[in-house]
Amino acid sequence: MTSTFSSVTIKQELCQGRMKCMRVCPTQAIRVKEGKAKILQERCIHCGECIVACPHGAILPLTNPFGELTKFRYTIAIPSPALYAQYDRDILPDKILDGLRNIGFSDSFDLAQTCGQGSFAIQEYLRDHQGPKPSISNACPVVVRLLQVKYPNLLSHIIPIQTPREIAAREIKKAKARQYELPEKDIGAFYLTPCPSKMISIQQPAEKKKSHLDGAIAISDIYGPVSAAMETVAYRTYRKSLENICILGIGWAMAGGMCRTLHLRNSLAVSGLAEIIKVFDDIERGKLADIDYIEAYSCLQGCVGGSLTVENAYVSYNKILRLIETLEFEKIKACPDIRAVRRLYQDHFFSLEAKIEPRPIKPLDENLIKAIAKRKEKDLLFESLPRIDCGVCGAPTCLAFAEDVVRGESVREDCIVNQSGRGPSFEARGRIKTV
Amino acid sequence: MKLRDIQRLLQAEMLSGTEIQLEKDIASACSSDLMSDVLAFSRSGHVLLTGLANVQSIRTANITGAKAVVYVRGKKPDAEALELAKLKDIPVLTTRCMMYEACGLLYQNGLLGVSLLENVQPSAEVRDYNSFSRSFEIAGRNFSRGGSVSTTIKDIFEDIGIDSAIIRRTTTAAYEAEMNVVMYAERGEMIVHVTPDLVHLQLRDEGPGIPDIGLAMQEGYSTATPEMRERGFGAGMGLPNIKKNADRFEIFSEVGKGTRLEIYFDLHPVRKNEA
Fold first, then answer.
1. Is pLDDT of A369 > 90?
2. Quick one: A328 and A299 in the same domain?
3. Residues of A in contact with B159 (CB under 8 A)
């Protein structure tokens, strides 16, 4: 088994064992043992639901602290377009980018431009696409990870187009290295992320190559400093600022933004893991083959709904939408040149650099015969359980508990029903203190 | 174990016998080319596996009360032997498996034989019949629950560690079959059966039945109502799609009573490669 890296960490001293994270986890990747939550890395898809659910702030995203900037001689901030939706409506992207320069980045880069290129590249790819339909967007790392873990059959549906954040980092580092005659390793490209999952896609990309980004900083960590730093930014007229916005790219911050700009006949925008799972189930059963493209985001409303954002997801969604509408109304199209993108596309500028491999959850046993026997045992054990999913055993459901026992990770006696009359062992686990 | 299971496990061809005979229960097996050994040691109700393809094998089977004869290594009995088998009503099958492989497959799947040693016990796994079975109720006309059985089945296959490409085929077939019950029948049942060599899905429903199976198997033929079409079904691809995804597919239907589907998927690596 390859080692897996976690995008979140649980601070043991803050964890009260209240199991909120365990109940909210969509892949049942959390167990509460001896009163403390633990993450089963193999199952984790880094969606960040647990971070939001924890009432004690014990679950922290493993993003880079702001101080990491000092490791590099030259630093570039590459903010997710979701950052633009965090501020008031009259604050437009170029002001925010200036604010980022003011707080200590050597430069900042408008990712929306690369997203715009990405939109054209996807259009190019889909035009000649002959493979399985629908194609699935790879913008959300949680979706990619979900496919690797739960739907290995659908990996061939993922578009083989590199994400804009990676392309932007790759190109800008090249350009700055030339401009300042610096080795590329002295240039740090930092993604300003709306969610913890981007961190893992940097630390351990799905396609097992090295990321071009050097780290991710939470939007929530940078929101305050940037707000303050924007006060000294030189004034520009609203119209002038609008003219710098790429209408194609700005939409990448919200669910449906990509589909809207791609002008595909038949595309779907899905957000929220539960909905995504329904859609992927349908694709796996051979339905939805008439759909060309699926844009899927683990967070409701898309990246604006990420767990590391500041503004309410619905408000920021609306902001991006209004911005797109304004640009449409004003007929402003500060977009990349489509012919240039087509040339780059032919030169594999946008190609994913390696293949995305499946990472299915381990079966109950590597040996098929033993796995069948264990599956039977799991059913039998489940029948004997109370089936009320109380969670006292430390597993989210009785079925998950039965599986843990069969896998040898729990013992039957951990179930409160199986230990009636055996109070002391329950106390010994430190969850209920005797008076 | 039913003779049908033996046929499936060994991918055997039936040379003589009827569909009904495949439902016979087989209690044990005996394999030998020496008919005297069979006469001496076999138990009544067994299946005889042999490479001896002449009339003697059928005679021995008849005397020892064998329920079926399976010829290994692709051997076929001569005309005289087949004639006698028909006369004595003994089903005759032939498999491409070698004797050792055929015995191994059946033993591994829980079909035991006679042992002369006191303490020979099959391993716990073999004793356990090595198979997983579970039955699921399917509520007819309940579109909102439609597909839930296939989803559960997928989880089971993942637990067991079945190859993901096979999981996709099985769940697609299971889903189509489940939705057929949901759309047309009052109620139905899906039985999932997994052995180390195959996945067997059996669907029985209490529904209107299919008057013309040949027609129903044609792509694009559908009797779906507008309501079903609104929900994205009724393109006439259901049964053909099951057939396309399965390694073997059988359908039995009686108008006014119901329909039974038998869907098989091979897990056996050797045979999978041959296919």
1. no
2. yes
3. 363-364, 371, 374-375, 378, 403
A-chain residue closest to B176, CA distance: A285
B201 touches chain A (CB under 8 A): no
Residue finishing a domain among A61, A86, A104: A61
Superfamily of domain B132-274: Histidine kinase-like ATPase, C-terminal domain (3.30.565.10)
Which of B132, B167, B176 lies nearest to residue A376, judging by beta carbons? B132
Cβ–Cβ < 8 Å for A4, A41: yes
- Note down the domain range covering A421: 368-435
Read off the CATH number of the domain in which A54 is found: 3.30.70.20
DSSP A353-375: SSPPPP-PPPPS-SSHHHHHHHH
pLDDT at A353 over 50: yes
**Which residue ranges make up each domain of chain B?**
3-123, 132-274
Q: Specify the pairing of strand B92-94 against strand B13-16.
A: antiparallel
Residue B158 to residue A369, Cβ atoms within 8 A:
no
Query: Do A124 and A40 fall within a single domain?
Result: no
Please identify, among A61, A77, A107, the residue that sits at the C-terminal boundary of a domain. Answer: A61
* B168 at A interface, C-beta within 8 A: yes
How many domains does one find in chain A? Answer: 3
Chain center to CA of B230: 35
Asked whether A377 and A399 are in contact (CB, 8 A), the reply is no
As a whole number, the mean pLDDT across chain B is 86
The helix/strand/coil state of A406 is: helix
Tokens 């035009």 appear where? A127
Q: What average pLDDT does range B167-194 have in this prediction? A: 90
Q: Which distant-in-sequence residues (6+ apart) come within 8 Å of A67 by Cβ?
A: none
Nearest CA in chain A to B151: A281
Residues A277 and A382 occupy one common structural domain: no
Residues A11 and A96 placed together within one structural domain of the fold? no
Neighbours of A135 (CB within 10 A): 24
Residue B268 in this model has a pLDDT that exceeds 80: no
> With contacts defined as CB-CB under 8 Å, which chain A residues touch B196?
368-369, 372
Interface test with A, best of B159, B162, B193, B266 (most A CBs within 10 A): B159
* Residue in B closest to A369 by C-alpha: B196
The fold of the B3-123 domain, in CATH, is 3.40.1390
**Where residue A255 sits, what CATH number does that domain have?**
3.40.50.1780
Of B147, B161, B167, which is closest to A371 when you measure between CB atoms? B161
